[in-house]
Amino acid sequence: MFALGGVDEMLFDSSLTVYGVLFLPVCLLVALWVRPGDLLSAPVVVPIAFAVGLLPVVGGADGLGARLMELVTALATQAGWLYAGTLLAAATVLVRGVRRAAARRRTASASRGPRPSSRAS
């Protein structure tokens, strides 16, 4: 996101809308590429990446205080993109987790073999 923020600054004159639109596919990719054992970390990392990526986008060339104020303002005004990306990552992780659990159940039931009939013959 930091690199995309830099690209946004150079090509689109620090457009927060462009940054938000670029943020959504990154959230989806993060949720798809994370290892199965780390699925719960994807929705946690997304807001951190959003904030780090805003650093090159926000103005505040007058010093650290101005940059921090611009960062807080951008986080407040662009919360919709942040929530949408986090929701997208969480939903993707949830679907992956459900599919993983179902595959584990199928594998476990296949390894046990067929169940004996409960009817007396």
What is this structure, in a nutshell?
By secondary structure, the chain is mostly helical. It has one domain (2-112). Helices cover 74% and strands 0% of the residues.
Describe the structure in your own words:
This protein is mainly α and 121 residues long. The protein has one domain. It is built from five helices and no strands. It has helices at residues 2-12, 16-33, 42-54, 64-77, 79-112. Helix 2 packs parallel to helix 5. The protein is rod-shaped. The mean pLDDT is 87.
Characterize the largest beta sheet: strand count, sense, and whether it forms a barrel: none
Number of helices: 5
End-to-end C-alpha gap: 66 Å
Helix/strand order, N-terminal first: HHHHH
Radius of gyration: 22 Å
Derived from helix and strand composition plus strand pairing, the structural class reads mainly alpha
Which short descriptors sum up this protein?
rod-shaped; 5 helices; 0% strand; 74% helix; 121 residues; mainly alpha; single chain
Give the topology, please.
Layout: H1 2-12, H2 16-33, H3 42-54, H4 64-77, H5 79-112
Helix pairs in contact: 1-2, 1-3, 2-3, 2-5, 3-5
